[in-house]
Amino acid sequence: MATLIDRRIDGRNKSTVNRQRFIRRFKSQIKKAVTEAMNGRSITDIDSGEKVNIPARDLSEPVFGHGPGGRREAIHPGNREFVTGDQIARPPRGSGGGSGGGQASNSGEGEDDFVFELSREEFLDLFFEDLELPNLLRTQLAKAIEFKSVRAGFSNDGNPGNIDIVRSLKGAMARRMALAAPHTRRLHEAEEELQQLLANPPVDEIRAKELVEEINYLRARVRAVPFIDTFDLRYTNRIKQPQPTTQAVMFCIMDVSGSMDRARKDLAKRFFSLLYLFLKRNYEKIEVVFIRHHTVAKEVDEQEFFYSRETGGTVVSSALQLMGEIITERYPISSWNIYTAQASDGDNWHHDSPSCRDLLLQRIMPFVRYYAYIEITPDRHQSLWEAYEEVKEKYPNFAMRQIDGPADIYPVFRDLFKRRTA
User: Fold this and answer.
1) What's the pLDDT tens digit per position in 16-29?
2) Which CATH number do you get for residue 289?
3) What residues contact residue 133 under an 8 Å CB cut-off, 6+ apart?
4) How far apart are CA 221 and CA 181, in angstroms?
5) Are residues 343 and 257 in the same domain?
6) How far is C-alpha 172 from the geometric centre of its chain's CA atoms?
């Protein structure tokens, strides 16, 4: 008997299939734990993994059990205390133990909750699974066109890996039949004539010899036709067609004026960090434009957006004007899906709020797919919120939410970008 020994080294991801099957099976419990975990996270550990506790009762398998009434016969092997005919008393109810929350007891047993550790990728996939950019449309790209390879019939030349065997064999068979048809027809006639000649003696040997030679010659000509030729080869032809695809730009506008203290700026940064992570994980063709503003707005990079210490007065319209200019110069609406997320405490120069309203109504909202405004204040709304309410009445794709503290960030984010059913 042969003995086979597998000496291959175990792969690092050998349990990936089992992990994914487990996640699919207990998805509702895991997603609930992920949502609860996100509420307590800070900006520094926003994209790390998480340990998830799943109650033991949710892991139990369905089994058949007997009810408390009736009689049944059973065999209990290995009993030393009972003999045939003995009555076995039922165990008292409630003698078993459970997990968590009960009082101490000297009897019963239970089982701890199952702890499942999610990796960073699994954790973020579950958290962002049911989120999306609202109203995202497929548009024809202006800079980078996405091509799709499609079937376009057959060609006489191509890559050997693209040979269509069936089509090639059909062509070879047709060619053989066409080239060998005259010789095959004459071969059948010669064979029939020879049979008739041999069946009616006396046999004309000279004619029979001529027929035999002709038959051999015709058979050789038929066999000389090659089974397949390079002329018969057919290759699957594929062409690349330009495909409409999704290309989007997200404008992140953050107020860094003096009224935005350190705590409020930290809340705004946490929101934008979560948004940036969501965009980069879920969308390939996405650009992010960072704009910081106080009295003057400036387009900055990611590093300066999150870590610059610049501050000043408050003129929100400067950021909206800069956004409008960038859209006109770099992001035509025929090729881009435009989105905006703005975070501010709502404090604005009172003469500037009407200007912000007019800029939104005339230059921005007619061209954006979705606009999300987050006001970070525990107090009553400021003049900017009142001006934006007029914009919301006219455009349903304008959303406004208020954030009081860290616990509001994740619920507000999920509410703004949750998947809408058509």
Assistant:
1) 566 677 667 667 66
2) 3.40.50.410
3) 248, 250, 279, 283, 337, 339, 369, 370, 417
4) 11
5) yes
6) 45
